[in-house]
Amino acid sequence: MGRVLAIDYGTKRTGLAVTDPMQIIASGLTTVNTKELLSFLKDYVSKESVEKIVVGLPKQMDNTASESEVYIQKFLTQLEKSLPEIPVSRIDERFTSKMAFQTMIDSGLKKKQRKNKALIDEISATLILQSYLAGVQ
């Protein structure tokens, strides 16, 4: 069984999360400069068995696509060319950034630590992955 990797895509930074090999636990992996994302993913997949990639699907409250979906579609095209052997799923990511920020508060992080946007992106990716796992189980 391979890992499932989740992506919270952003135009500047992208948060990544991954499951354990048994696909039970979702953990934050890292935050990557989006310009380096594809090379990071290729390198990661060459070292770890990744069965599926889950990419957040940003939607507005009225269920229409968010303006960032244009950038995500371009990325998905590049991802398909770079890693055609790994299937990609999409999952609604509404509120993940707000939930990530609340998670930071609930876990007792200081105000300065909560301003770390890279950490918010990584936690958001973890929440996307947890949502995916909850729907698969």
UniProtKB/TrEMBL annotation:
<dbReference type="InterPro" id="IPR006641">
    <property type="entry name" value="YqgF/RNaseH-like_dom"/>
</dbReference>
<comment type="similarity">
    <text>Belongs to the YqgF HJR family.</text>
</comment>
<keyword id="KW-0963">Cytoplasm</keyword>
<feature type="domain" description="YqgF/RNase H-like">
    <location>
        <begin position="2"/>
        <end position="100"/>
    </location>
</feature>
<dbReference type="GO" id="GO:0004518">
    <property type="term" value="F:nuclease activity"/>
</dbReference>
<comment type="function">
    <text>Could be a nuclease involved in processing of the 5'-end of pre-16S rRNA.</text>
</comment>
<keyword id="KW-0540">Nuclease</keyword>
<dbReference type="InterPro" id="IPR005227">
    <property type="entry name" value="YqgF"/>
</dbReference>
<dbReference type="Pfam" id="PF03652">
    <property type="entry name" value="RuvX"/>
</dbReference>
<protein>
    <recommendedName>
        <fullName>Putative pre-16S rRNA nuclease</fullName>
        <ecNumber>3.1.-.-</ecNumber>
    </recommendedName>
</protein>
<dbReference type="GO" id="GO:0005829">
    <property type="term" value="C:cytosol"/>
</dbReference>
<dbReference type="GO" id="GO:0016788">
    <property type="term" value="F:hydrolase activity, acting on ester bonds"/>
</dbReference>
<dbReference type="InterPro" id="IPR037027">
    <property type="entry name" value="YqgF/RNaseH-like_dom_sf"/>
</dbReference>
<keyword id="KW-0690">Ribosome biogenesis</keyword>
<dbReference type="GO" id="GO:0000967">
    <property type="term" value="P:rRNA 5'-end processing"/>
</dbReference>
<keyword id="KW-0378">Hydrolase</keyword>
<dbReference type="InterPro" id="IPR012337">
    <property type="entry name" value="RNaseH-like_sf"/>
</dbReference>
